[in-house]
Amino acid sequence: MVLAFFKNTVFITLLSLFSCGNSTSTPLNEQTSISNQKTIAEQTSSTTTEINTNIVFNNKPNDTTKRVGRTFIEDKNTIRTGANQFTAYMPLLKGKKVGIVANQTSIVNDSLDYTDERRIVDNHLVDFIMEFDNQVVKVFAPEHGFRGKADAGEIVKDGVDVKTGIPIVSLYGKNKKPTQEQLKDIDIMVFDIQDVGARFYTYISSLHYVMEACAEAGIPVIVLDRPNPNGHYIDGPILEREHASFVGMHPIPVVHGMTIGEYAQMINGEGWLKNSVKCDLTVIKMKQYNREMEYSLPIKPSPNLPNDVAINLYPSLCFFEGTIVSAGRGTETQFQVFGAPSLPSKIYNYQYTPQANEGAKYPKFKGETCNGLDLRQTPKLKLLNLEWLIDAYVANGKKKTFFNNFFVKLAGTNKLQEQIEKGYTAREIRKTWLKGLENYNQMRQQYFLY
């Protein structure tokens, strides 16, 4: 009885909100394609992010800010993710067959008070959408799976959600791009996954393929925006097209500095989808967010990023995945330590022994003692740290086999490996990134939402 009353109350509220024109830009016209719609974003407070000792990149939207798709925001003084703004996206799902791209981070939370009788805390988006009598027909799962338990790189199989009986389609199995057959019974797609702001974190690659497939099928996509915990800086070499892969699809730096919603707009606006198709895109903005904010993720985004320290260190330490050095997989301190048996213990005096655990069934150097460094007390990084990588290369006794073929894919270029092998310092390497970072920073500001 209470639930029925609540749903009716919410529905009436939604009608009132949208009849009053609470979207941020132009009135909605549901009969018109909006894939190329451009609006002017509201100005945020002026902030800057230092990328190098000699250069500062502006983090404020410029006067030509455009949005490729619709964007909504409710004007209240609370910080909430796109998923928590149900008044913005629930009306778009009414009467539609809904597909959802989701994992364990797709949570409606913040202890939202909907009525005096009910509070929802950490309710999964799939369950939440279904509570409003919406028809969810299929869930698509990225790397690590719907529940976020699979290892990095592990094939994820299709299945069925035990709780709801909804089919789950893997985007990290036989195909990374949804097929037209898999999309045929879907009217609208919702994408809600927590990213960490690194090019080689594959959720943005899944976003690309979902947008591309939906554009080809004529299916609108709603992206529920979430904070970027590494959104306070951009850094690293720009990916070169000849080195594109699923761990790097676009010409961006290693640390891209965009929220997932902004990134979706950039994919659309820069014509990165196959044959330059445009996705019918709607981004549901967050409230009162800016990219300089400290944000602690309530749920780990993948098995090997267990906390804020690991997430901050990840863009720097992931380079070790393309070397003979371990980045801590198979321990409880993943991406907070690094080491290898071949590193000298006098310099690398922190020791650990990787063992199989959740997210690392077969970790590098399983059962072997690694000499390394414990970085858990490292101050929050505002740039990539190259010294750890360079010093490990120099100290390691196996220079010829230090790098493997995966390193170039992670770096997005073969130049970084060549520079390290030639003895370049971190400062010298960083200078070669400046022009690319300047160009990227100018380009990305067109898609700022905050």
Automatic annotation (TrEMBL):
This is DUF1343 domain-containing protein. InterPro entries: NamZ, NamZ_C, NamZ_N. Transmembrane segments: none annotated. Residues 313-450 form the Peptidoglycan beta-N-acetylmuramidase NamZ C-terminal domain. The lineage of its organism: Bacteria, Pseudomonadati, Bacteroidota, Flavobacteriia, Flavobacteriales. Residues 98-307 form the Peptidoglycan beta-N-acetylmuramidase NamZ N-terminal domain. Keywords: Signal. GO terms for molecular function: peptidoglycan beta-N-acetylmuramidase activity. Residues 1-21 form the signal peptide. The keyword Signal applies.
